[in-house]
Amino acid sequence: MAWIPVSVSLGFVGLAVLAYCSFRVYMGVRRFGRELERTRRRLAPKQSALRDELDDLNGTRGPQAPGDGVRSS
């Protein structure tokens, strides 16, 4: 009859280990989310400048005629 309390206590210990691991994963995901947000804020001005420059480059080129493309054969 001693196996019942042992199995119950082992079940609780197993749940405690799973809870600890879940908490660590949760904290890691939160830290990763903050890191992504910080990186996004740092890159936003550069991305905006690059997008503006790309728009300027696309605006200065004239449209190509349909027959002026690169031929594959």
TrEMBL record:
Residues 50-73 are annotated as: Disordered. It comes from the Bacteria. The chain crosses the membrane at residues 6-26. Keywords: Membrane, Transmembrane, Transmembrane helix. The keyword Transmembrane helix applies. This is DUF4229 domain-containing protein.
